[in-house]
Amino acid sequence: MTFSSSFTLAEDVDNYCVIGDPISHSKSPQIHQLFAEQSGQILHYQAIAVTADEFDEALLQLHRQGIKGLNVTLPHKSRACSWVKAPTGLAERAGAVNTIWFGENEQTYGDNTDGKGLVKDLLANAITLSERNVLILGAGGAVCGIIEALFDAGVARITITNRTLTRAEEIQNRFSTIGEIQVYSYDSVPANLADIVINATSASLQQQVPPLADQLIAGRDCYDLAYADSDTAFITWAKVNGARTAIDGLGMLVRQAAESFFIWRGIRPEVEPVIAELR
């Protein structure tokens, strides 16, 4: 399919964008504009809707028109990993790219900054990772983007629970050489298994929570990769059931964006003012 979305790159300035489907809800343009303002950078960043059928043609057009770099969100992260010629080792192992930039001789590079963003936000919220056990709810693509970073940060073990156990087992096998991973169905997760519970399902966006026993939440540090203008269903559930902490993924969003900004511009922006602005 020919890419037909209308977009215009700003003249005489470096252009960046985020692509996805849907994309109108994206906070990335606001985040990167705030990064640019605080660091004295002059750039233009926009959100561009790209369907799965348009993906290849869209990236070719953007590259030809001089885009300097782009972020990639759902549903294109795995496709982007195959599209770039030089994914980082981390991105290749995750099978997902969320940050693309271009080099000489038509070279295309890709990285995945999601895991770094998550780890930095957990630590910024005083959630210790070293030698702790993590329970991840869900086995979608987002999980592959965070596992290696969690092990790099020193977690002792990761447990994945999912409705479809085979999907969790696929991730277990994929990362078997990175660290200790075990899998359980939702109804068989042992008590006192984890210190940290991370919701990587999309249930919160439908105002639902995964079918996990309430007692597995009490006293734990709980984190939802999703975020919203008010508490997500998972965050509400965690608070009701006595979680030690309950934090949504807005900070992760901003911190992973900061990693992209550093890749493109060589500058590490201040993230706390941006998180406060978005709140």
List keywords for this structure.
globular, 279 residues, Rossmann fold
Structural class, please? alpha/beta
Strand composition percent: 15-25%
Number of helices: 11
**What is the CATH-assigned architecture of the largest domain?**
3-Layer(aba) Sandwich
Rg, alpha carbons: 19 Å
> What number is the mean pLDDT?
94
Coarse shape:
globular
Q: Going by CATH, what is the homologous superfamily of the largest domain?
A: NAD(P)-binding Rossmann-like Domain
List unreliable stretches of 5+ residues. none
Total number of domains:
2
Portion of residues within helices:
25-40%
SSE series: EHEHEHEHEEHEHHEHEEEHEHH
Distance between the termini: 39 Å
Count all strands and give the number. 12
- Major β-sheet profile: 6 strands, mixed
CATH class categorisation of the largest domain:
Alpha Beta
User: What fold name stands as the CATH topology of the largest domain?
Assistant: Rossmann fold
Strand order of the largest sheet: 2-1-3-5-6-4
Protein model, in words:
- This protein has 279 residues and is of the alpha/beta class.
- The chain has two domains: 14-112 and 253-278, Leucine Dehydrogenase, chain A, domain 1 (Rossmann fold), CATH 3.40.50; 115-248, NAD(P)-binding Rossmann-like Domain (Rossmann fold), CATH 3.40.50.720.
- It is built from eleven helices and twelve strands.
- It has helices at residues 28-39, 55-64, 77-83, 89-94, 114-124, 141-144, 147-152, 165-174, 233-240, 250-265, 272-278, and strands spanning 14-20, 43-49, 69-72, 86-87, 99-102, 108-111, 133-137, 157-161, 181-184, 196-199, 221-224, 245-247.
- The strands form two sheets. It has a six-stranded mixed beta sheet, sandwiched between helices. Strands 9-8-7-10-11-12 form a six-stranded parallel beta sheet, with helices on both faces.
- Strand 8 (157-161), helix 8 and strand 9 (181-184) form a beta-alpha-beta unit.
- The model has no long low-confidence stretch (mean pLDDT 94).
